[in-house]
What we know:
- The chain has 142 residues and is mostly beta strands.
- It has one helix at 2-13, and strands at 29-35, 38-40, 43-52, 64-68, 74-77, 93-100, 104-114, 117-129.
Amino acid sequence: xxxxxxxxxxxxxxxxxxxxxxxxxxxxxxxxxxxxxxxxxxxxxxxxxxxxxxxxxxxxxxxxxxxxxxxxxxxxxxxxxxxxxxxxxxxxxxxxxxxxxxxxxxxxxxxxxxxxxxxxxxxxxxxxxxxxxxxxxxxxxx
Length: 142
């Protein structure tokens, strides 16, 4: 009788016993930053997305990378990669530049996708203040 009570517990504790595949490994985290983080317009900003920690998992090999600039623009990077083979290293650093003409607080987002599925998404706030060439800083005509 006691053996029958233990079997369901073993099935839950042992994934392959319950018909599930074993865990693939630890997924990396996505860290994003901008250079500069605060600037005066007009300005070119470099945004870097970097995978930190985790394992070199196949699902993170050769992802589509989208940068959403929050000013109506977006950039998408797709690469043509050879098929993944065990032991291959994943690319961990992605970057893009964007030109901000006007002042504003922008919520910049970096999205990693594979086969249309979002793997990681991270955003941050970018503060662009009005500079000498900023058209939003011009006085209105009367």
